[in-house]
UniProtKB/TrEMBL annotation:
It comes from Filimonas effusa. The keyword Signal applies. It holds the Pfam family YidD. Keywords: Signal. This is Membrane protein insertion efficiency factor YidD.
Length: 166
């Protein structure tokens, strides 16, 4: 019985020590983060993250955020959790993950914008299937099967209009 009480008291002391150390280290880290945030925000604001070629890639026809805007003024429709999570995931994908992949997208309308328009025009089920099909075709091997008449003469990008899937 005495051994059990001694073990419990040591365990309790150890847990308190771990909590104190973790709280102290987190608070020191938070103070450093708060001290650097003004300078970091100024640096981020003055830095251009996209090159001119990447800017042109995202400014092409069909690459817009107009699909993400709310069509309905209703509070329930505007803050639907499913809609917000889908649009948030698409925004995260476009602004975080595709920074590394955007240069290799051979299509005139990028795959993520194609997915946004497909979901907007055809609904969630058919839109997701069309988007998955498009992403699976977005590689260098699939480029061999594209007929020359489906390419833009000036940019060389593949024209894959959403109207083809009606």
């Amino acid at each position: 019985m005495r051994k059990s009480n001694a073990f419990k008291s040591r365990l309790f002391l150890y847990c308190r020590l771990v909590l104190c150390v973790s709280f102290f280290s987190c608070s020191c880290f938070w103070i450093k983060v708060q001290a650097q945030s003004a300078g970091d925000l100024e640096l981020i604001g003055s830095t251009h993250f996209y090159s001119a070629a990447q800017e042109r890639h995202y400014k092409r026809a069909g690459n817009s955020n107009s699909v993400l805007r709310m069509r309905s003024k209703s509070f329930v429709a505007a803050y639907n959790p499913l809609s917000l999570s889908m649009k948030g995931a698409m925004y995260l994908y476009q602004h975080v993950f595709t920074l590394q992949l955007a240069r290799s997208c051979p299509y005139e309308i990028t795959c993520s914008n194609f997915a946004k328009h497909a979901i907007h025009d055809h609904g969630i089920v058919k839109g997701m299937l069309l988007a998955a099909d498009r992403v699976m075709r977005c590689n260098r091997i699939a480029l061999l099967d594209v007929p020359p008449m489906n390419r833009d003469e000036h940019t060389g990008a593949i024209k894959d209009d959403l109207n083809l899937y009606e």
